[in-house]
Amino acid sequence: MSTLIVSVSGLRDDTLQHAAGFADELDRRGVPLSLLVAPRLKEKYRLARDLDTQAWLRTRRAHGDAIVLHGYDQAATKRRRAEFADLSQHEARLRLAAADRVLEEVGLATDVFAGPRWQVSDGARSALPGAGFRVLATASSVEHLATGACVRAKVFGLGEGQRTEAWRCRALVLGAARVARRGGLVRLAISAKQLGNSGPRQAVLDAVDLALQQQARPVGYGAGVLVDAA
């Protein structure tokens, strides 16, 4: 049996409406979301000051969605470089501690980490267990950091800065359907900003529906997925 994970990133005040509408669509399908949260984003965005998004995230977690730490301060990262892609262990430890402190303060603490653009350096990887993280999701796998259990599966995604021509959307749908037919782990990801565009949004919903037709089991990121998808 295949397993399905759907994640949304780039959650903030000006994308919240798009994410909420998408969450409603998945609720009707019985599919939980994994919500990739960063304390700081571009344009001086701060989650700590965004009370509406905080409240929505807490409500969604109570509903069964997973909270995933998705970096700390993406705005402070060099252009074209993912925040955790080149960090040393020491630098990663500092950023993880700062991010964890923010999430703890707003009631969204988590032990699941996915670096921006799904990239993580060796130094950052080694810092995660000491910072209290148990699960790491990368572009090619989901790993339990304590046991070493790992499920290999690529992400089919439409990120905020990506171009979304019709062929890219079709490739996402076809790729996800192929993995579902083979009984693998289907990982779909989209930015909340892209959810404001009908083509990308519909592509992900189509991919979800095709996976469900193959009896895929919908789950969120967490230790449980390593059992369900093994």
Structure notes:
- The longest helix has 17 residues, at 89-105.
- The chain is globular and about 45 Å long.
- It has a single domain, classed as Glycoside hydrolase/deacetylase (TIM Barrel), CATH 3.20.20.
- The protein has helices at residues 16-29, 51-63, 89-105, 122-127, 166-181, 198-213, 224-228; strands at 3-9, 33-37, 40-41, 45-46, 66-69, 112-113, 135-137, 141-144, 150-152, 155-158, 185-191, 217-218.
- It is α/β, with parallel strands linked by helices.
- The strands form three sheets. Strands 1, 2, 5, 10, 11 and 12 form a six-stranded parallel sheet that branches. It has a four-stranded mixed sheet with strand order 6-7-8-9, with no helix packed on it. Strands 3-4 form a two-stranded antiparallel sheet.
- α5 runs parallel beside α6.
- The protein has seven helices and twelve strands.
